[in-house]
């Protein structure tokens, strides 16, 4: 983040346009009946850090994005997209409500702390209703997304040097 020419950086799990059927989960709203939960659709799950929404230019419409307090040992939180907010809370504010998503390692309830604008992330043709999770509460692998103020090529050598300084063997492994 300190490299001149980089305005935002975030860990991320899924690159744009990967497809609608990868890293998806059923999302349940606390208080739904079992029948209603069984009818809930599969929803893409995206993961990011404190600068995730700024890095990708996704507007936060209500509430907040992720903070340094959203750690593994912190209260489980999520941000949801505007289309999910309309579907599950058509006449209510979803901030403070609880959801859960289903995955191999968790079915815990998470408190909604923010609502983000709708995106065309998994597909250019349609809006992607999305659950966003903080990086430190979700996954430990992935990639980084970087927003630059100019040409990426002008900062790429500095990014490679910084990566090598943190993990000297990383670039050698990545090049294989």
Element string (H = helix, E = strand): EEHEHEEHEEEEHH
Query: How large, in whole angstroms, is the Cα Rg?
Result: 17 Å
Let me know the number of strands.
9
Unreliable stretches (pLDDT < 50, length at least 5) are: none
Sketch the major β-sheet: 6 strands, mixed, barrel
* Mean pLDDT over all positions: 85
Description:
- This protein has 176 residues and is an alpha+beta fold.
- Helix content is 22%, strand content 29%.
- The protein is built from five helices and nine strands; from the N terminus they run E-E-H-E-H-E-E-H-E-E-E-E-H-H.
- The strands form two sheets. Strands 2-3-8-5-7-6 form a six-stranded mixed beta barrel. It has a two-stranded antiparallel sheet with strand order 1-9.
- A hairpin with a 7-residue loop joins strand 6 and strand 7 (109-116).
- The model has no long low-confidence stretch (mean pLDDT 85).
């Amino acid at each position: 983040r300190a490299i001149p020419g980089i305005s935002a950086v975030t860990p991320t799990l899924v690159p744009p346009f990967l497809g609608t059927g990868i890293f998806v989960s059923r999302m349940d709203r606390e208080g739904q009946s079992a029948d209603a939960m069984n009818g809930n659709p599969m929803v893409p799950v995206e993961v990011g850090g404190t600068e995730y929404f700024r890095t990708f230019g996704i507007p936060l419409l209500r509430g907040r994005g992720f903070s340094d307090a959203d750690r593994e040992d912190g209260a489980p939180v999520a941000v949801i997209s505007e289309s999910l907010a309309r579907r599950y809370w058509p006449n209510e504010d979803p901030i403070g409500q609880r959801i859960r998503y289903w995955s191999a390692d968790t079915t815990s309830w998470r408190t909604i702390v923010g609502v983000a604008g709708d995106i065309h992330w998994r597909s250019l043709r349609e809006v992607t209703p999305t659950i966003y999770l903080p990086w430190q509460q979700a996954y430990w692998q992935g990639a980084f997304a970087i927003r630059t103020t100019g040409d990426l090529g002008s900062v790429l050598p500095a990014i490679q040097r910084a990566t090598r300084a943190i993990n000297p063997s990383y670039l050698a492994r990545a090049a294989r």
